[in-house]
Amino acid sequence: MKIGIIGGGSSGIFAAIEARKKYSDVTIFDKNNFLGRKLSSTGAGRCNLTNVNVSPGLYRSIKEFYFQELIHKYDYAFLNEYFSKLGIYTYHTDDGWVYPLSNSARNIASFLEDHLNSLNVKIYRNTSVSSFIKMKNKFQLKTDSGKLFEFDKLILASGGKAYPQLNASDAIFQSLLNFGHNLIPAFPALAPIKTSKHKTKSLNGVRVDATLRILDHKSVIGSDFGNIIFTEWGLNGPGVMNLSHLVHQKNNLNIEIDFSSLLPQDFLKNVSEDKFLYLSTPLLSIFNKKIIDQLLLNLDLDVNSPFKMNDLRHLIEKMKFTEKIIGTRDFEFAQISTGAIESSQIHPESLESKLCPGLYFAGEVLDVFGPCGGFNLHWAFISGIIAGQMKS
Question: 291-302: buried (b, 16+ CB within 10 Å) or exposed (e) per residue?
């Protein structure tokens, strides 16, 4: 039995490890000169492998979500034990982000490629698969160089369009149309959001936690609390990126940045007119000075406005910036993309195609994405493991 895997990223590598437990002939094709190239850039180079808080409720799909049971079964405890058995040892931060002890994503990519070599997995580097078909119960693959390969079973783990600078592409998806699979259009996800700068023009470079809401007119279609960075073109940071998939669903959306949740509950109790000369002073221990000045400017108040209790209450009520959403930044700035195979055509327990027996899917080619913090690498690893456990 010969197993072919298109894509040597996180999901493809783990699919190969798992498939090799049952089959002696496993082959990976990857466009890059080493496996796990995207993996080697994750976590700002530290390799944010997974998250202690993985749960089905934190994942989303563009269409219906079918994979709750898989994520529930293959949780953090499962994956961390799997890592340990491989020899990958981890630690986690207070907020649950999991890293290897080496803090080196490149080390992990090298570790995994060496492990595949020890398993005698065949690896074709710098090799793009241009198309594949199925004839007489065999999958026939064609590379860009025109070379042909034949396999009994095939795992598609080729990723999406995010990080084209790392040779990411979803061109191979076109072969799926021949089997009747429906494709979901690709857009940047977990990407920075471009906005107008009418109410935040003086905040460039400020990094802060805040509550964010995506507004369709006055209706909230998504919200999150997290770290954001103000830039000359809009907003960056995990809190913003976690909502970016919503940007492509509707036009004329706004984003609201709300700082009121950062105020201590007893804030007003400790403020009185005999304690402060200026309106901005009570806020100096809580907010960046640029945020305070921008709030005052938006309300046509001077930075040296004298302290008045009523003005402070008014300032707290208006402690929100609203900007028009222009779009997201392109695929080269996105952590993942939304282009995927429609999940209704896939067996959710095995990730095998319902339309083409013997064809399996793993990683970003599936309509699944989670927030920043290791959730998407977790999905890449466990979906690779599941696909690699293919039935005989």
Answer: bbbbbbebeebe
346 DSSP assignment: B
Determine the Cα–Cα distance for residues 242 and 253; give it in Å rounded to an integer.
16
* Alpha carbon distance 153, 139 (integer Å): 7
Question: pLDDT over 90 for what percent of the chain?
Answer: 81
- Residue 369: helix, strand or coil by DSSP? strand
Mean of per-residue pLDDT scores for the chain:
94
From CA 81, how far away is CA 60, in angstroms rounded?
Answer: 25
Confidence at residue 249, expressed as pLDDT on a 0 to 100 scale? 81
How far is 305 from 311, CA to CA, in rounded Å?
9
**Backbone torsions φ then ψ of 384, nearest 5 degrees:** -65, -45
Calpha distance 103→291 (Å, rounded): 34
The reply to whether the predicted model has a pTM over 0.90 is: yes
Minimal CA–CA distance to 375: which of 48, 107, 18, 47?
Answer: 48
Sequence length of the chain is 392
**Spatial separation of the C-alpha atoms in residues 91 and 100, rounded to whole Å:** 6
Domains of the chain: 2-187+339-388 (3.50.50.60), 193-328 (no CATH)
25-52 residues labelled b (16+ CB within 10 A) or e (exposed): ebbbbbbbeebbbbbbbbbeeebbbbbb
End-to-end CA distance of the chain: 9
Q: For strand 50-51 and strand 97-100, is the pairing parallel, antiparallel, or unpaired?
A: antiparallel
Q: Is the pLDDT of residue 190 over 80?
A: yes
What average pLDDT does this structure show over 98-120?
97
Q: Residue 270: what pLDDT?
A: 82
In angstroms, the CA 301 to CA 306 distance is 10
**Gyration radius from the chain CA atoms:** 24
- C-alpha 8/C-alpha 112 separation (Å) is 10
373 contacts: CB under 8 Å, gap ≥ 6: 48, 51, 95, 96, 97, 238
